[in-house]
Amino acid sequence: MTLTTGRTTDLDRTRFFIDGRWVEPLGTGTHVALEAATGEPLGTAALGTDADIDAAVRAARRALDEGPWGRTTASERAAVLRRFTAALAARADATSTLVSRENGMPIGLSAAFNGAAPAGLLQMYADLIETTPLESVRPSPAGSTVVRREPVGVVGAITPWNYPQVLAVMKIAPALAAGCTVVLKPSPETALDGYVLGDAAAEAGLPPGVLNIVLAGRDAGAALVSHPLVDKIAFTGSTAAGRLIGAECGRSIRRCSLELGGKSAAVVLDDVDLDSFVAGLGAASFPNNGQTCTAQTRILAPRSRYAEIVDAVAGFADGMTVGDPLDPAVACGPMASEAQLERVLGYIELGRRSDARLVAGGGRPAGLDRGWFVRPTVFADVDNAERIAQEEIFGPVVTITPYDGDDEAIRLADASEYGLGGSVWTSDEERGLAIARRIRTGTIGINYYQQDLGAPFGGMKASGIGRELGPEALDGYLEFKSIYASAAQLDR
Ligand code: NAD
């Protein structure tokens, strides 16, 4: 493989963005970021300690309680968010390239989710907050009640490595629009791109302390979750970490939203148009090399058309170009880290030792010896109770399970601890809608799967608690307050 040449980014990030300034770390930890396609060093980042997190939280608290942010109007905040939008949009190309180098995401997808979407979300919440009523008056038995919606307070945002920019801004944009302040703790696997948000915030003139960014590992992440001056944790990551974070937030009665793992089903109906299904398969089942929480990695196929569906899925996987994520012709880049590669290969080995039939892929691709590449892999004849059909693999590995009749398809789709994404493939959209309504999942597509940033997104069951995106996401960053007043308020 020849890697695209001429890549330039400012890669070493040895300071944190706290209180509107780039500050020296209080500890000595560093993290060397490696390029997913080569395994070679990409840059160095400082790793935060509990003390760095504490400094960031205190800055966020001051900005809210003493600084101007807590007293801004919605229009003033919208104006700041629009400047932030422009500063981020100007960096979109460089940011998407950087993320692809960090985590192996194909560049076209990265341009959409790490380039365009974050700026779009800031713009969307700037517009929304100006039209969202934050105070109303209603009659009460003693006079009137003024019902206000106030910012939740200081938000600790914790993000994973798979879609780092958009997942961060899915929290930051509604939080800032609502009047909260934020401490962002990105994941060490994508150590470098989070600070682009600091560059853009500084250029946009966000008041000091409104957005603070400290790269840190799990321990300092836990210090953010339990910090007494934090009012809410907005977490995206694994269900295992979500359980710990949710438990701590329960202990301290802290608000939290949890966007967690998934093992979603693509339900192929017996009237499917196979060409359309195959055309949508990459986005539905293999997005971001399978490193996507909503990936529909369990394909449920009707027994009446089972053989042709297995052939179609195997043919699609075999035909995916694996290689440099910066090459627009590449459909499947590398895994984000060596640990992720080992995890995926471990599950492929598990599949090989089960009764399932390997029909495509099955290990590392020939000729790609550097970096963390895996061949798109398909197992057919998989019992839905098998570990490869129940556990989140987070790589380009799908299973195919046969079923008889729509009721069994729905039962199998729901036979998972998760409920995050999904899809139904059919020539009859009404039939697809009827089935989509019956499956317990947070989002589901009919004949395609593409996230709609204007609609609420999140999981049922062990896939999480709460919703991000859409106007509904503002609710997670606003608290109701009722002020009992006299009837005179009704005449205001
Ligand atoms: P992870 O849970 O290991 O880490 C996520 C983030 O949480 C990282 O920043 C990590 O440092 C931090 N963290 C981990 N344990 C913590 C703790 N106890 N306290 C505080 N912080 C902690 O997940 P990952 O491997 O980075 O990401 C992959 C996972 O994220 C997958 O399970 C995927 O499904 C999930 N995910 C979910 C969504 C969604 O919207 N539902 C979106 C993307 C990814």
From TrEMBL:
The UniProt GO MF terms for this protein read: aldehyde dehydrogenase (NAD+) activity
The record places the active site at 259
- List the InterPro entries hit by this protein, alphabetically: Ald_DH/histidinol_DH, Ald_DH_C, Ald_DH_CS_CYS, Ald_DH_CS_GLU, Ald_DH_N, Aldehyde_DH_dom
Reactions catalysed, as given in the entry: an aldehyde + NAD(+) + H2O = a carboxylate + NADH + 2 H(+)
The reply on keyword Oxidoreductase is yes
| Enzyme Commission numbers on file | 1.2.1.3
In the UniProt record, does the keyword Oxidoreductase occur? Answer: yes
Matches recorded under Pfam families = Aldedh
Alphabetized, the UniProt keywords read: Oxidoreductase
Show where the Aldehyde dehydrogenase domain sits. Answer: 30-483
Which family, according to the similarity comment?
Answer: Belongs to the aldehyde dehydrogenase family.
User: PANTHER family per the record?
Assistant: ALDEHYDE DEHYDROGENASE (PTHR42804), ALDEHYDE DEHYDROGENASE-RELATED (PTHR42804:SF1)
Stated name of the protein = aldehyde dehydrogenase (NAD(+))
Starting at the broadest rank, the lineage of the source organism is:
Bacteria, Bacillati, Actinomycetota, Actinomycetes, Pseudonocardiales
